[in-house]
Amino acid sequence: MSSKLRLSIVFLLAVSTIWAARGSGAQQTQSPQSNPQNPPTVPQPSTRPPENNDETLRPLSSEEIPPNLGFYAINPLYKPNTPLGWSTTRIEEKLDRGLNAKAIDGGKVYLSWRLLKDDPQSVNFDVYRKVGSGVAQKINTQPISSTTDFIDASVPAGQQATWSVRALVNGRQSGQASADVSAPTNAPQDYRSISLKSDVRSVDRVGIGDLNGDGVYDFVVKHPSGTIDPGRTRPSPDTFKIDAYNGKTGEFMWRIDLGWNINHGIWFSPMVVRDLDGDNKAEVCLRTAPFAATREEAFDGGKGFVLSGPEYLSVYDGETGKEIDKVDWIERGKPEDWADHSGNRSSRHMLGVAYLDGKTPSVLVVRGTYGLMKVDAWMLKNRKLQKVWRWTNERAPFKYQGQGQHSIKVGDIDGDGCDEILNGSIAIDNDGRTIWCTGLGHGDRFYLSDIDPERPGLEVWYTIEDPHPQFGVSLWDAKTGDLIFGLREPTRDNQVAGGLVADIDPAYPGMECWGDKYFFSAKGQVIPGPVPSQNELVFWDADDLRELHSRGLISKWKPSTELGKTQGSVQHVADITGDWREEIVTFINGELRIYSTSIPATSRRVCLMQDPLYRNDVTHRSMGYTHVPMTSYYIGMKASQ
Questions:
Q1: Are 516 and 495 in contact (CB under 8 A)?
Q2: Partners of 351 in the β-ladder
Q3: 3-state class of 615 per DSSP?
Q4: How far apart are CA 216 and CA 93, in angstroms?
Q5: Residues of 336-350 as b/e, b for ≥16 C-beta within 10 angstroms?
Q6: pLDDT class of 501 with cuts at 50, 70, 90
Q7: Is the pLDDT of residue 34 over 50?
Q8: Own/partner pairs, 337-344, CB within 8 angstroms, 24+ separation
Q9: What per-residue confidence (pLDDT) applies to 167?
Q10: Which residues of 178-194 are buried (b: 16+ CB within 10 A; e: fewer)?
Q11: Taking a C-beta distance cutoff of 8 angstroms, is the pair 450, 633 a contact?
Q12: Rounded to whole angstroms, how far apart are CA atoms 592 and 219?
């Protein structure tokens, strides 16, 4: 064969190979006009996920539009053996006795104080009164053992008196006496007041924590009130100020002005107060941005609604108000990443606290509610914030999208001694991995507690705002995510907004559960008749049933009884002083009012703030929608009662 013929054959084979490849579709470049018999084909993705699909946030192909993906992953950012804390012992508040003195009718003074979890079971108490500069005299005839309260019925008229309490173990004084407290005896008063600075006209949220390490809860006041929702773009009328007040003396401590780069509204400005580094002094955590002293200096050029620029998690010293450290907030990205064009969904921010290793408190930063959702966990070590992990649903299936609520719940749901996070309808393990998801979507209220004491572990009561053919209100096992019972009829979009859970009716075992027009026992039995109010709950009288607090009225549900009244906008319901019954903190006429009960107790119980779940719930009330705090153990009437 000649060399020319050999070259011709090679050339023809090459040309035929190229055309064959072009006709296969995978490398088609010929336009349809030039070859209508072989139109171009769209590249087809692989039928198998890549090897690293579950371990990384892999790049998405051009055909994938989140959350509609070719391949899904639940925990793409999980890293095994990540340190979850640094403390060798659990960091907890060092509370004092919390002695509270309150003038009541007949010239008497009602006294109550804390039972602490470190107290021996056999601890008793003596109460002392000191008149003027005289010597303190014991005023109880027998050691007080069954309650942690006492009525002084012999208060000297017209003289200044103070009271203190001392713990007794085996008949001997144990530890130091409580601090002396006084009470105005000229007239009974239902509350103690703390006057705020003269420019405080309204209050948005109040945080509670021991800022100076004296064992007394102090108050961090965010003002003015701001009701701007990210979904309704309108200018902020003012800047948020954060003020601290001494809980013992009522004195003003410091102020932080967040400036014009933080919009008004709870979703732009979450706040939590908690001791993060174990120095017995609470830190204040805020979402911040570079300070803008005037509206014109803000990133939006003076429009009054900022949706651009840097964002930070900032941690402040609770005693001084000075910044300790700050790190970048979860990145905003584009509004479309969060499923709208306006910035509404990307502007849903929350904060929380969780003991991920069971010993060290971490700060949780939450962004997103209705679609994309992300959570960052940070711990404060040596006055520097260190990243623990990030959780995200951005590669998760449709069931895991838009499951956020307007708060979070943090507690030990699986009994491992560490906190898990309920980010709405999704449960996240302490190491940042997804545990379960109801798939029911968004709601405004949900509660975690031992709702049915006859079942092992904790339960979650969900009230869901999204429409459903069934289960719009429902009870779930907190550990497994299994449905216990639920409503078996449809609910409309935005029908179910409120909801509560508590033992308010002794006729039914466990806690009653209600939301909208639906009312159930802990066993799922429909309770006939009217549905209780859905505002607040409070432990107020002497039994284990919880009372209703609605529109300034404290009352029992069954039997229906009025027990007291309050005034002002409710900022907290929590066990912050005195015995285990709760105080109600309100704002009115430029002051905080701390209402407390004077109904004599019939039993004693460890301070509720020393229960981890309850303490977390109180912490989270200063951000998101208001929720009543719940304990990790059952408080209510027993079947025998």
A1: yes
A2: 365
A3: helix
A4: 10
A5: ebbbbeebbbbbbbb
A6: very high
A7: no
A8: 337/66, 337/372, 338/368, 338/370, 338/371, 338/372, 339/370, 339/371, 339/372, 339/402, 342/230, 342/231, 342/233, 343/230, 343/307, 344/230, 344/231
A9: 96
A10: bbbbebebeebebbbeb
A11: yes
A12: 9
Cis? peptide before 224, omega within 30° of 0:
yes
Query: Which strands, in side-by-side order, build the sheet including 323-328?
Result: 271-274, 283-288, 312-317, 323-328
The mean per-residue pLDDT over the stretch 455-466 comes to: 97
State the pLDDT confidence band at 19, using cuts at 50, 70 and 90: very low
Q: For tokens 């009716």, name the residue.
A: 505
Secondary structure string (H, E, C) spanning 438-488: CCCCCECEEEEECCCCCCCCCEEEEECCCCECCCCEEEEECCCCCEEEECC
> Could you give the CA distance from residue 358 to residue 119 in angstroms, rounded to a whole number?
22
Q: Summarize pLDDT for 372-395 with one digit per residue, the tens.
A: 999 999 999 999 999 999 999 999
* Structure confidence at residue 185 as a pLDDT band (50, 70, 90): low
**What is the tens place of the pLDDT at every residue in 507-566?**
999 999 999 999 999 999 999 999 999 999 999 999 999 999 999 999 999 989 999 999
Q: Residue range 82-94: average pLDDT?
A: 97
278: amino acid identity, one letter = G
Element (H, E) at 620: helix 612-620
pLDDT of residue 249: 96
Dig out the tokens for 141 from the structure: 């005839």
- CA dist., res. 569 & res. 410, Å (int): 26
What is the H or E stretch that residue 168 is in? strand 161-169
Instruction: Give the model's pLDDT for residue 477.
Output: 98
State the Cα–Cα distance between residues 56 and 392, nearest whole angstrom.
Answer: 11
Q: Which of 229, 228, 223 is nearest to 205 (CA)?
A: 223
Beta bridge partners of 512: 502
Location of structure tokens 């050999």:
6
Residue 188 sits at φ, ψ, to 5 deg, of -60, 145
Distances (CA, A) of 138 to 28, 127, 143, 269, 606: 97, 6, 10, 49, 24
Question: What phi and psi, each to the nearest 5 degrees, are found at residue 91?
Answer: -80, 120
Mean pLDDT of 434-459: 97
Q: How far apart are CA 532 and CA 545, in angstroms?
A: 14
Q: Which structure tokens are listed for 28?
A: 């088609």
- Least trusted range by pLDDT, from 96-100, 200-204, 336-340: 336-340
Rounded Cα–Cα distance for residues 548 and 370 (Å): 31
The owner of tokens 């003020």 is 243
